[in-house]
Amino acid sequence: MKSIALRTLTAAACLVGMSEALLGNGMARLAPRSPRSAFAVRALKKKADEGVQGTGLEPVTLDAIPGYWELEEDENDSSMHTLVHLLPDGDVEFGRTDGPLPASVQARWRVTDEATWAFELSVKRHFSEEVNVKFPYDVERVYRGYIEDDKGLRTVSGAIVIPEPGRDDINPGFFMLTNVPEFPEDTE
């Protein structure tokens, strides 16, 4: 139990102030986020939902979720950024990435609990000879977190999960989705 609490606190500390978007021809920094723990954010969000003034958090609506997002994945000792487009029907389109290029991607997103704004993104990346991989393989991840809206900056942060049927899921890292205005134009 102590290990889980320590990992949760470590994840919250790692996620504070981290967000890079793949804009233009490279990486551009967004404004740093305020240093709030996940627990403090949920408490403020509850107060905002109840109409308490001065929380800085606005109630989230389902209409605010579809759009363009930057997915930052911090798994083990590596970090990767990918542009994604969350469509209203739950489908996901993938854009540029600074990680390994998959041959194909299947993904779906959903809000699993509107009361707490729990969010889930399921992604299956397929790597094959098309992308210079000797032996084809798939990588499946589930991203589970909570949607936040802090003065118009929408984010989702939480844990990366490797589903293990019949066993406990493995948690190799953490993620953050940050809402971005649109996919940048490719200039090649």
How would you describe this protein?
The chain has 188 residues and is mostly beta strands. It has one domain (2-180): Beta Barrel (Lipocalin). The chain contains two helices and ten strands; from the N terminus they run αββαββββββββ. It has helices at 2-15, 38-49; strands spanning 20-23, 26-29, 67-75, 78-86, 92-97, 104-113, 118-127, 137-150, 153-162, 170-180. The strands form two sheets. The chain has an eight-stranded antiparallel β-sheet with strand order 5-4-3-10-9-8-7-6. The longest helix has 14 residues, at 2-15. The chain is globular and about 45 Å long. The N and C termini lie far apart (50 Å). This is Plastid lipid-associated protein/fibrillin conserved domain-containing protein. Keywords: Signal. It comes from Diacronema lutheri.
The sequence of SSEs as H and E is HEEHEEEEEEEE
- Could you tell me the radius of gyration in angstroms? 17 Å
Q: What is the β-strand count?
A: 10
Shape: globular
CATH domain topology: Lipocalin
Largest sheet: 8 strands, antiparallel
Protein name: Plastid lipid-associated protein/fibrillin conserved domain-containing protein
Organism: Diacronema lutheri
Keywords: Signal
Signal peptide: 1-21
